[in-house]
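Quick one, tokens below:
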């Protein structure tokens, strides 16, 4: 999903329920890499997360870092990967300042052919398992905090 689709999708889902979720995990922005300068993208992402946080202060937000890929659709791989690192670094600080959680994916590396489908973008079963375990551990951390 492109980042610009995150808030509209959240608002559409929210209109179908009585209240916001207890925990919102956001993994988006990778498809937006290369479509605008990295710091512009990071700024838009930060501003929208700040709005979400202020609208729903009781909702825990977990930001999932943009993962490495073997193939980037919108630019040369080296440049887009550098931009990805810049966006992730910026967002980790911004999300931390909001008191939200960051989900990192250090085991998902572009050179590991055992975790990607042939398209070089999507994860295979093994890669998806690693991805989901990273998310699960942070969600469990949030749940443990809420019970203390």
């Amino acid at each position: 999903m492109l980042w610009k689709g995150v808030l509209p999708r959240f608002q559409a889902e929210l209109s179908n329920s009585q209240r916001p979720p207890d925990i919102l995990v956001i993994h988006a922005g990778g498809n937006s890499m290369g479509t605008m300068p990295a710091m512009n993208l990071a700024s838009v992402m930060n501003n929208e997360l700040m709005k979400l946080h202020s609208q729903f202060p009781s909702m825990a937000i977990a930001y999932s870092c943009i993962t490495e890929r073997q193939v980037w659709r919108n630019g040369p791989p080296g440049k887009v990967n550098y931009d990805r690192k810049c966006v992730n670094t910026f967002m980790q600080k911004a999300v931390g300042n909001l008191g939200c959680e960051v989900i990192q994916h250090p085991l998902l590396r572009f050179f590991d052919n055992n975790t990607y489908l042939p398209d070089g973008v999507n994860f295979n079963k093994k890669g998806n398992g690693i991805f989901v375990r990273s998310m699960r551990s942070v969600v469990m951390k949030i749940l443990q905090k809420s019970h203390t």
